Amino acid sequence: MSPDAPKHSHWCNVAYWEHRTRVGRLYTVYEHSVSIFYDLPQGTGFCLGQLHLEHRSSTVQRTRGKIGYGILLSKEPDGVWAYNRSDHPIFVNSPTLDIPNSRTLVVRKVMPGFSIKVFDYDRSCLLRHTTEADLLDGPYDPNSVRISFAKGWGPCYSRQFITSCPCWLEILLNNHR
């Protein structure tokens, strides 16, 4: 690439987690969409099956086997969308899915073959001005999305925190659209 070529910046980084352990490096996304999948003989994107960890629990191994075709993450003019290409549900939490200043965590279940706007750009701009620091429980990133594979978390599930989920993604959005 020549030094005069326009710099194409990334729009997000993806971190893959197994319970409380991040596995592998951050995956930087430059294209408008990215496939995040377990294992395919052909294809491009973020292949979670290629990430190695020395000791995996049987729960993590079973859940990894359910990721399959995974998700398609797409940056659109109105926000970021996730399409569930797996044979199992995914579970999503995002600041733009929550009710502003709510103490209740909103986790949406997305069935196979369905999509959801996981991050709304316009709504995120409003949230930056309305979030009160004293209502937050711990660190808060207004530009992140969390997606778990096959297992949900939150008030309606036995797993209260995403770090209790066997396999999950943290989508760290670059706040420059």
From TrEMBL:
In the UniProt record, which is one GO cellular component term? heteromeric SMAD protein complex
What Gene3D superfamilies is this protein classified in? 2.60.200.10
Recall the GO molecular function terms of this protein's record.
I-SMAD binding; transcription regulator inhibitor activity
Q: Domain named MH2: which ranges?
A: 11-177
Keywords in alphabetical order, please: Transcription, Transcription regulation
One example of a Gene Ontology biological process annotation:
regulation of transcription by RNA polymerase II
**InterPro entries from the entry?**
Dwarfin, SMAD-like_dom_sf, SMAD_dom_Dwarfin-type, SMAD_FHA_dom_sf
Family matches, as PANTHER family = MOTHERS AGAINST DECAPENTAPLEGIC HOMOLOG 6, SMAD
The molecule here is called SMAD family member 6b
